[in-house]
Specification:
Elements (H helix, E strand, L loop, with lengths): L17 E3 L1 H7 L5 E4 L10 H15 L4 E6 L4 H13 L2 E6 L5 H6 L1 H5 L3 E4 L5 H17 L4 E3 L3 H20 L7 E6 L3 H12 L5 E6 L4 H19 L11 E4 L12 H14 L8 H13 L9 E5 L14 H7 L8
Parallel strand pairs: 2-10, 3-4, 3-6, 4-5, 7-8, 7-10, 8-9
Antiparallel strand pairs: 1-2
Helix pairs in contact: 1-10, 2-3, 2-7, 7-8, 7-9, 8-9, 10-11
The structure holds pyridoxal-5'-phosphate (PLP).
């Protein structure tokens, strides 16, 4: 058992499901293929950030906070899940978007208000400016006698996936052929660093593959290494040096960059919907599943070494992404019902 001293506010009933994707196996001609359904949680339509929020809200409650502040784009899963989780914890929530309040962003942010959060649109400011404005808003709340907590610390957030790696390992041990490879998105880092750290603490049962959806390889690796080292210092747990770990970085699905679909990612959305009834969204999970399918079809992951892809959620944002399907409709002539 792990001895993580940080407080945890329970939001999940773990373990999340670990499932075979039988129809995808038939389509690809290879079995078993596993998916860890971290999109399958009870609050706010689930997703990786809910694991982080158990620790963020644990810290907020420890500090006596009565309001949590969170920032992101209007489609941000972190904002939506913070708003949902704050309502469960009985905390107020203020969401900050670096966007203007036009029709599209108001629609994308709709669920935040539904969960009871106050939503503030900051206009087109950079992420750095946004962070300054959030700090200023926290100061203003303090002057009003409130106790704000700003959600997003990468190390605290990463603790959720240290636990996630342990959870998957426990599930994997009960399978006839335990999982050998785990594929997850490579992005800001807390999820990946936490999972890598949890894996390393268990003597690396999994080989880890990151499909980059945001940064170039050097940036992504540096971010993860930093969080990993900080996790070791923060928890005091004896983990091996990051540089001694084997992590595979896959850059070939980044395409034109963060949030821009590729032909393969659009196809992954359609394939998973039509084989497994699983919903993927464009920014994180579609590229990750496209990478996963590449790795198994090319046998870069050998046929006798069972793989698992982690579905990190984000499903709600799919309903603000109709326009992103148009390229696929045009280029491949696939019959996709688009709204708006
Ligand atoms: C659905 C989904 N998957 C993956 C990620 C990436 O997680 P991280 O920021 O921990 O790298 C995010 C981040 O917002 C997300 O919303």
């Amino acid at each position: 058992m792990l001895n993580i001293k940080d407080s945890r506010f329970t939001l999940l009933h773990t373990p999340t499901p670990l499932r075979r994707m039988m129809r995808l196996e038939g389509r690809i001609g290879r079995a078993p293929l596993y998916v860890k359904r971290d999109d399958h949680m009870e609050i706010g339509m689930g997703g990786n950030k809910l694991r982080s929020l158990e620790y963020w809200l644990g810290a907020a409650l420890d500090e006596g906070a009565d309001v949590v502040l969170v920032a992101g784009g209007p489609m941000s899963n972190q904002c939506r899940l913070t708003a949902a989780a704050a309502s469960v914890a009985g905390l107020d929530c203020v969401v900050f978007h670096n966007a203007n309040p036009h029709d599209e962003s108001l629609r994308a942010s709709f669920l935040n208000g539904l969960f009871g959060a106050e939503v503030r649109f900051l206009g087109n400011v950079s992420e750095q400016q946004r962070a300054v404005l959030v700090e200023e808003a926290a100061d203003e709340l303090r002057r009003q006698g409130r106790s704000p907590y700003i959600v997003g610390d990468a190390i605290i957030g990463a603790l959720g996936y240290v636990q996630g790696a342990l959870e998957l390992h426990r599930q994997s041990r009960s399978l006839d052929a335990p999982i050998r490879h785990v594929v997850l998105p490579g992005s800001m880092g807390p999820t990946e660093a936490g999972f890598i750290f949890g894996n390393a603490l268990q003597d690396n049962p999994f080989e880890i593959h990151l499909v980059s959806v945001e940064y170039g390889q050097a940036d992504l690796a540096a971010r993860i290494a930093r969080i990993y080292c900080d996790l070791a210092a923060h928890t005091g747990l004896a983990a091996p040096e990051f540089d001694n770990l084997l992590v595979h970085y896959h850059m070939d699905h980044l395409g034109p960059g963060y949030g821009h679909p590729t032909e393969a990612s659009e196809k992954a959305i359609v394939t998973l919907a039509r084989t497994e009834g699983i919903l993927l969204e464009h920014i994180y999970t579609a590229k990750t599943f496209a990478g996963f399918m590449d790795l198994v079809t090319s046998e870069a992951i050998p046929p006798d070494e069972p793989p698992c892809v982690i579905h990190t959620g984000g499903t709600a944002s799919l309903f603000s992404q109709f326009h992103l399907f148009r390229a696929l409709e045009r280029e491949a002539g696939m019959p996709i019902a688009v709204g708006a």
